Amino acid sequence: MLTTGLILILASLGLAQGLFLSLYLFTLKTGNRNAHFFLGLFLLGLTIRVGKSVLNYYVPLENWQNNIGISGILFASPSLWFYGKALFDKNSSLSGKDYLHYIPFILFLFLIPFVPRKGSFESLWNYGIVVFHLLSYLILSWSNLRKNKNIVSKSIMAWYRNILIGASLIWLHYVGNLFDFEMYYIRGPIFYSLLIYAFSYLFLNRHKFNLQKYSSSNLDKESSAKLFQRVKELFNSEEIYLDDNLTLNTVSEKLNVKSREISQAINENVQQNFYDFVNQYRIEKAQFLLRDCHYKKAKIATIAYDSGFGNVTSFNLAFKKKTGVTPSAFRKG
């Protein structure tokens, strides 16, 4: 069992991280700014809601303070849906009628002094309606994800799906709280904290999760797949990877396509950068040569150069990274 002090530390750190990420997203000037704004709103709403649970667990709050915390869900829910719409269409913007989705939050805010906090009506109002409100937007968001699965890149789809899974799990925790399962009351904030840490790692680790790198590109998912197929055909037919001076610009000139689009096609279809993609072909060539009887007595350096590597050190490092063994061990094995 977690001690009271440890629960407070974990939950508080998660809340601080959530608040930091919200502010970071609000001030981020690059990439899809609409998407950043709505994601920031979603995280801020969750942070307010979870913060209320943490405070109320340790310090009894006034009715109006509890209600302010609960109101966070009412603007987090539509923000989650709008985030998906902005993520899938970077040119999207809110119309006048879209702001109607925030009316429940505004009404709740004005009615805070009058919203009861005792008895069965409290459970219906503060949890039943609010939990149902979040469920409604989760359904809309999952539907939006399904509708766009063949349009946007795999990385964006996976990212939004993971956010929806996390939001859905938080919703389940509050369903438990609705039915008066006390253990869910504080486990929700703990789970939220873990979710925020995972989110922070993925979002800030831009080399692995780089949603907005190609935000200005007009290359859609289908065109990206077709271009990637052309790149593979070029590599297989002309074996251009055997040139140790091969660059992205070389491929760009051969295919008469912008180098940025080639990089995007490779990144979106196999989640590799250009040089990792090239080295994959070179290592496969090296594996073939290491098994070739005509190269049985050839030095490792010869294998490296004939596979397209410019030096033996780079070859050894790349080969071991890919296969888990050195070229010499591979040959013996």
Could you characterize what this model shows?
- Keywords: DNA-binding, Membrane, Transcription, Transcription regulation, Transmembrane, Transmembrane helix.
- The chain crosses the membrane at residues 6-26, 38-58, 64-87, 99-115, 127-145, 157-174, 186-204.
- Residues 232-333 form the HTH araC/xylS-type domain.
- It holds the Pfam family HTH_18.
- It comes from Flagellimonas pacifica.
- The mean pLDDT is 81.
- The chain folds into two domains: 4-212, Rhopdopsin 7-helix transmembrane proteins (Up-down Bundle); 221-332, Homeodomain-like (Arc Repressor Mutant, subunit A, Orthogonal Bundle).
- The protein has helices at 4-27, 33-58, 63-88, 103-111, 119-147, 154-178, 182-204, 221-238, 248-255, 259-270, 274-291, 300-306, 312-323, 327-332.
- With 333 residues, it is mostly helical.
- The longest helix is centred in the middle third of the chain and has 29 residues, at 119-147.
- Helix content is 73%, strand content 0%.
- α3 packs antiparallel against α4 (103-111) and α8 (221-238) packs across α10 (259-270).
- 30% of the residues are buried.
- It is elongated, with a radius of gyration of 26 Å.
- The protein contains 14 helices and no strands.
